[in-house]
Amino acid sequence: MKPENATAVLQYHLLGFSEAPEMQPLIFGIFLSMYLINILGNLLIILAVSSDSHLHTPMYFFLSNLSFVDICLTSTFIPKMLQNIQTQSKAISYEGCIMQIYFFILFGGLDIFLLTVMAYDRFVAICHPLHYMVIMNPQLCRLLVLMCWVVSALHSLLQSLMLLRLSFCTDVEIPHFFCELYQLLQLACSDTSFNTLVMYFAAVPLGAGSFACIIYSYSKIVSSVRRISSAQGKYKAFSTCVSHLSVVSVFYSTLLGVYLSAAVSHSSSHSGAITSVMYTVVTPMLNPFIYSLRNKDIKGAVTELFLI
User: Fold this and answer.
1) Is residue 288 within 8 Å of 45, Cβ to Cβ?
2) For position 112, which CATH number holds?
3) For the chain, which residues score pLDDT lower than 50?
4) Which end of the chain is more exposed for a tag (fewer CB within 10 A), N or C?
5) Enclosing domain of residue 144
């Protein structure tokens, strides 16, 4: 294939999961169902937190922000995917692909940063309970969320702008169901070594740093819980972390599983796309259920919403 300037590539082709026509209605139905469940579940969390004054606390403030980001993350690529299946097209424009990458990195990064902030919130609540409301005041909470947005937006902008310097071959086929940064770098006709360097030097410290902060927070939490004398006190203290710890475990295990398996086993492109569904679609869909399953406050607030 002949190298062309990036702007000359009018569109890409998203290969998705299967090219078999008989599989398209099934794929459409599955992803539409997961998308609607994700929207409804996370929207209920946001409405419940905003409508119940008892939930106007730092923990639920961060949770409502996480729910909003999860809605935005899946909305980045699922509607386009459903449209392509419905119209029997695999095309996405060059501009659309760059925008998809930008917003995917933005909201994916926000997911990671908000989970890190929520770990810090649980650390303060358990390790410094008497000073919790003083430390986690509304001003600090808003500042932490703003910092998450700023850092993630700058990182996303950097990675997206770096793509604009590359040249691509005509008739580019992306073996995925959405435009992903790594996949696009693999398909570029020009030298991508600098892009790869920037990608790892920017993304790895942010991701690894966030994960290290979560590990540190929970190491301090475990240490504090162990010092509590009564079994009931230990259970009550740690039960406030169960939902967050479950979400972190599911998110990071699926995310690391996808990229480590891809790096080690060189699995097929379609299997890589299938495993990516776990952290891009399934995890955001499960978050509302994880947080409401053992949480009486959320259950009560959601019940009141339906009774109004």
Assistant:
1) yes
2) 1.20.1070.10
3) 1-7, 267-268
4) C
5) 3-307
